[in-house]
Design a protein that fits this description.
Elements (H helix, E strand, L loop, with lengths): L1 E5 L5 H10 L3 E5 L3 H9 L3 E2 L2 H7 L2 E4 L4 H9 L13 E4 L5 H12 L4 E4 L2 E2 L1 H7 L2 E6 L2 H12 L2 E8 L3 H29 L4 H8 L7 H12 L8 H18 L4 H15 L11 H8 L12
Parallel strand pairs: 1-2, 1-4, 2-3, 4-5, 5-6, 8-9
Antiparallel strand pairs: 7-8
Length: 299
Amino acid sequence: MRIGFIGLGIMGRPMAKNLLKAGYSLTVHTHKASTVAELVNLGAQAGLPAEIGRTCDVVMTMLPNSPQVREVVLGPDGVGQTMKPGSVLVDMSSIDPIASREIAAALAERGVEMLDAPVSGGEPKAIDGTLSFMVGGKEDVFEQCKPLLLAMGASAVRCGEIGAGNTAKLANQIIVACNIQALAEALTLAQKAGVDPRCVFEAIRGGLAGSTVMEAKAPMMLAGNDRPGFRIDLHIKDLNNALDCAHAVGAPVPMTAQAQEVLQLLRSRGDGSCDHSAMAHYYEALAGIRLGREETEHG
């Protein structure tokens, strides 16, 4: 089985490496030539999307948003133009569920199957191969591709038909954003009340408030570490998709809307490329502090 992999960014690059480590034959494509060269040095082949479509049994995409997936799959030079009947597209991008269904319908006309299989875990879990996959699509196609997903992740759960994976990812991104905002707010309260936020983190991490989000993001906030594992710009994209989906189906999402406003403000201040834990910057600016560090003057 030959696998095609298109999109070798922060997440896609380590995911492709894990497929190579698992022994899969891989053909890769991305805009950054140095990244392609790195994967080729590890045993992959390089190819354009049309070539990948012709030669691969399963094509995986890891791209920024719906327009990029449409272009790479359905565009004039897209991989979908040359994929063989019976082959499978596994889109691991986080996109609008409606877009997933539309792309799947276009591929079905060519006899090509599709799974939408977005991931959760960020760069650290992409590197160590412990991502969580949320998958939509036919059950038999999911079972066929599950070993590939588990070469990159610790879990792969089929949530329903096409679009269900991205719906689950939107739910995930709502929970993550609101958790990060609540964490930043709580640690700010502790520091302003004269209690070391590091001690608060240690005291509550084992209780009901403890979470994977807290374990990953509290240390970053307290150290002022904004190195992106998942950028604010990308979380804004995901919450835009969540809001669009919610409005389409009539789901109330007021907490999501508030978190989105905080993220948008931070992007307007130049923090769009920071990790989403930089939601703490919003509270630091309002409170005139630096979490876990020396106080500064407000403003």
